[in-house]
Design brief:
42% of the residues lie in helices and 17% in strands. The protein is globular and about 65 Å long. The mean pLDDT is 94. Helix 1 packs parallel to helix 3, helix 1 packs across helix 8 and helix 6 crosses helix 13. It is α/β, with parallel strands linked by helices and 426 residues long.
Length: 426
């Protein structure tokens, strides 16, 4: 097991004067440096490696200030570019690895017009320019419904990022029902005047070890539940104590057992060790449910805290896709129990905006109707078709193949071409 990330949430004064942002953040980051140092030392003292240290901000664009954006759209993007550059330098000196800036809470926006220009205009270039910058577009919530305009914009964003560099889609996701201070990127954002921090875990290896040694399903469940409770108590004790020393509120732990692309650190491997034929096999949904149901139901368990299935980040899942053992519908099925959704899924390069919109709509519908946080991080690969091999020179990705998708006809009758802006189930 490892700590995947220590994620600090902090309001950042974007679009104020550069000097204001810099002086404000200098004081905050000085505190964060000392905090991270002590927390890392405490974790290392119990043989827990901390892989990354991260910072997330509030949504960049707000409904209240849309008139300002409309009058000065080009100036807004230029100013934001300057400030992201300033922040990158500050975070580098502070040994903070990544920054997440949520674009906007689109599920709360009835009028999306100017925000689509902000999102699709220069923003893809910002992600390409700053490879440590992550962002998300929250398009739906159980409370507000689904912003169909934002969902279309999300599909166009994925397609545009793919044309610039398919790897850049690693830095962007479309999200639904994700609450503040979820520590996993790209979905992380902060929404409080007071800074806070949260913990993401990489512990697919713990699940694999327990499932490998289990004699039956009940044995697997009881042992995993006991292990998760033990981990919760250890992490909680350390984080609350260190957080108090630096006036940082501890938001909690995302208990999703994140994988790493090695065999025994794979959640797909864990599922197969429960004696299912392969990841995605009929009947294996119960393994997903066991993992979800073993997660402690306690105050400081936050975020997704469910089954995590990032296709390219998991050795066995990537391998089974390569062997054509599952499809997109399998991943959606697992998401109904409580996955993180569709994460780092390699798609054909000629996937259309309408097809992307339809996939995103399925994810949002599951999220809204079942009231669970889900994201979609989709990666169309130009020049590649279903079944083609795919491999990135990236530590966190395993080799795999392009997933097959159901193709849609080019018809104007589709919801994607209609002018309906919002949909609520209630």
């Amino acid at each position: 097991m490892r700590i995947r990330s220590i994620t600090i949430g902090q309001i950042i004064p974007f679009l104020f004067k550069n000097e204001t942002l810099e002086s404000f953040m200098e004081e905050k980051i000085e505190n964060f440096i000392e905090f991270n140092k002590e927390l890392v030392e405490r974790f290392e003292g119990i043989n827990l490696i901390v892989e990354t240290k991260r910072l997330c901000s509030q949504p960049l664009f707000s409904y209240e200030e849309q008139l300002m954006y409309q009058k000065n759209l080009e100036e807004t993007i230029t100013h934001l570019d300057d400030q992201l550059g300033i922040l990158q330098e500050m975070l580098k000196k502070a040994d903070i690895d990544y920054l997440a800036c949520c674009t906007m809470l689109a599920d709360e926006l009835k009028d999306f017009g100017i925000f689509e220009k902000l999102l699709l205009g220069e923003f893809p270039k910002l992600l390409k320019k700053y490879n440590n910058l992550f962002t998300s577009l929250p398009v739906a919530s159980t409370r507000n419904g689904i912003n169909l305009e934002a969902l279309k914009a999300g599909a166009r964003m994925i397609k545009k990022l793919s044309s610039l560099d398919p790897f850049t889609n690693l830095q962007f996701c479309v999200s639904s029902n994700v609450k503040p201070n979820t520590p996993f990127f790209p979905a992380a954002y902060h929404y409080s005047d007071s800074p806070a921090f949260s913990i993401a875990l990489e512990m697919a290896d713990e699940v694999s070890r327990i499932f490998r040694n289990a004699t039956n399903l009940t044995d697997a469940k009881l042992n995993l539940k006991s292990k998760f409770e033990e981990i919760y108590d250890i992490i909680l004790s350390i984080c609350e104590e260190v957080g108090q020393n630096y006036n940082l509120e501890f938001s909690g732990i995302d208990f999703s057992p994140a994988p790493y692309p090695k065999l025994t650190r794979s959640i797909g491997y864990a599922i197969e060790k429960l004696k299912f034929d392969y990841f995605g096999a009929p009947g294996s949904l119960i393994a997903v449910a066991i993992i979800k149901n073993c997660i402690p139901k306690k105050e400081k368990v936050i975020g997704f805290s469910g089954f995590m299935q990032p296709v390219l980040e998991d050795y066995v899942i990537a391998k089974r896709l390569e062997e054509n053992k599952f499809n997109l519908d399998t991943l959606l099925l697992y998401s109904t129990i409580c996955g993180t959704g569709l994460d780092v899924v390699p798609l054909p390069g000629d996937v259309t905006e309408k097809e992307l919109f339809s996939i995103l709509l399925d994810v949002s519908t599951i999220s809204v109707t079942l009231d669970k946080p889900l994201t979609a991080r989709l990666m169309p690969i130009p020049g590649k078709k279903a079944g083609d091999p795919i491999e990135f020179d990236f530590e966190y990705f395993a080799p795999s193949r392009i997933i097959e998708i159901k193709r849609l006809e080019d018809t104007k009758k589709h919801l994607f071409n209609r002018k309906e802006k919002f949909f609520q189930f209630s």
